[in-house]
């Protein structure tokens, strides 16, 4: 089994580590526009050797784990360079534009559009870890456009890694993910900004961070290089989520100003059922 | 050493557990308006016996760990019932109103106003854990108003529990904590609300929650009984933080609408320094 990982950061590097554990005989090749990262991935034995696009035709599997702006630029070239039996898998956090980009590509059947919902706030090859994807959801889009034998090859990997598979169309994916992921990141970044702007004394932030701030602001450590193109590609959905979020905050503020603490209580009480949702226990629908 | 814990939930129960470890000979008495919680605390051996206010005069130390609305009502009565050598310690998340409430109380010198910055999103006696306060900050207000010998007694406990002490005036405390804690809770509650309202299918939320939503929404599991009175008492500061937060979100949205992704990038990049702040590594001030 010959595998190429294009983009040897947290996401690609963690794939490579799991693949090594699952298929010890696999040869893992790495490609990265950042030569320092590529060398680091080699030194950390995340990949076995460096590659360039000329070598892609020899690969059984190509994982494309690069920021989504680079993804839409590179994916057509990667498919051009791939062999007839190569399955090319992406891991982009947006799915509409990437699917549109290769819609009419002659090797569309070699491509499987994926979004493994996993990550940490860290990045780069040194952030790659074993088991990052275990128990996590992998959303696959337009599965019917991928050759069946190549789907099978990819699914063997995902199942071996312990991922849960969900199928979704790219438009629905981008809408849902705007709420559940993209909005979380913006709320966290803007929370961090608001606190940093106000707290001139950083020591005060640090001392008080145990009060819930630390977990809520965790995503504000995320990479702007990764997130700017995501927000750009999913702009319409993200703006919609932001408008609804701001409206809910305005309403909460108004309840405070009105001194209507029964409504303040109810707002929080109604949202408490997020506990059950995150436990995966469906509530009784009325 | 005789200790009373008034309010045997997460905060008071965790104090009781640490005290048992630190001072094995201590007798821990419990008071709670919720008889089920009180019995649970006894069954879990968090407390050794039940007490009422009549017994407070015999106590060396009284920890008052109840919601802040109950705190301002009960604290004068608790001080009335306490002995001359009893140190009464609160753990309220707001400090101005509680300090005002007992400002002219004849036993003001018996009271130490504290806010241990620790907690989890869980509540009740069964949520109490050993070591909750280790390495956490305890903010003490108006320390000069507490009798020195009683300060010493309290500090011996806090140091034994491994807490870091910070002194602050109540007005500054309430302003800082509004940014670093109270705003985090509202941002999390409203994020949860926005996502629940939109995602009719709770399965979708659950499947995608690994994308950062889970940690950002963690605080939305918090108890409305605890948080409504905090927001009520700290309303002015909380409204101010909300206005600044909403303004930052509006601006971010505008950058998206304008297609100004350089500014979107910069907003995130500037906030990334929260990483250094939370590591406690002070940045070079220019």
Shape of chain A: globular
Residues in β-strands, percent of chain A: 5-15%
Integer average pLDDT of chain A: 94
- For this structure, what is the CATH homologous superfamily of the largest domain in chain A? NAD(P)-binding Rossmann-like Domain
Q: Count of helices of chain A?
A: 12
CATH class of the largest domain in chain A: Alpha Beta
Largest sheet of chain A: 8 strands, mixed
| Annotated CATH architecture of the largest domain in chain A | 3-Layer(aba) Sandwich
Q: CATH topology of the largest domain in chain A, what is it called?
A: Rossmann fold
Going by helix content, strand content and strand pairing, the class of chain A is: alpha/beta
The pair of chains with the biggest contact is: A-B, 94 and 94 residues
Strand element count of chain A: 8
| Low-confidence sequence ranges of chain A | 281-286
Number of domains of chain A: 2
Oligomer: homodimer
SSE order of chain A: EHEHEEHEHEEHEHHHHHHH
Helix content, binned percent of chain A:
40-55%
Order of strands across the main sheet of chain A: 3-2-1-4-5-6-7-8
Radius of gyration of chain A: 21 Å
């Amino acid at each position: 089994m010959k595998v190429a990982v294009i983009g040897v950061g947290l996401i690609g590097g963690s794939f490579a580590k799991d693949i090594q554990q699952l298929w010890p005989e696999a040869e893992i090749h790495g490609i990265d526009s950042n030569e320092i990262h590529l060398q680091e991935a080699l030194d950390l034995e995340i990949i076995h050797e460096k590659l360039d696009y000329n070598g892609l035709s020899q690969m059984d599997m190509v994982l494309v784990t690069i920021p989504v702006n680079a993804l839409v630029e590179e994916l057509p070239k990667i498919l051009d360079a791939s062999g007839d039996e190569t399955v090319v898998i992406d891991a982009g956090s947006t799915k509409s534009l990437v699917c549109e980009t290769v819609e009419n590509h002659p090797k569309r059947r070699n491509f499987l559009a994926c979004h493994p919902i996993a990550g940490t706030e860290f990045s780069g090859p040194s952030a790659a870890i074993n088991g990052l994807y275990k128990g996590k959801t992998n959303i696959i889009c337009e599965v019917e456009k991928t050759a069946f034998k190549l789907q099978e090859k990819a699914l063997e990997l995902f199942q071996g890694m312990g991922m849960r598979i969900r199928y979704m169309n790219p438009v629905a994916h981008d809408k849902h993910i705007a709420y559940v992921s993209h909005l979380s990141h913006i709320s966290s970044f803007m929370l961090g900004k608001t606190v940093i702007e106000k707290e001139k004394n950083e020591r005060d932030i640090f001392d008080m961070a145990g009060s819930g701030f630390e977990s809520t602001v965790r995503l504000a450590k995320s990479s702007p290089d990764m997130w700017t193109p995501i927000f750009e590609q999913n702009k319409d959905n993200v703006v919609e989520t932001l408008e609804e979020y701001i409206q809910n905050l305005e309403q909460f503020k108004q309840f405070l100003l009105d001194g209507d603490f029964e409504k303040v209580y109810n707002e929080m009480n109604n949202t408490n059922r997020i506990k059950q949702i995150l436990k995966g226990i469906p509530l009784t629908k009325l």
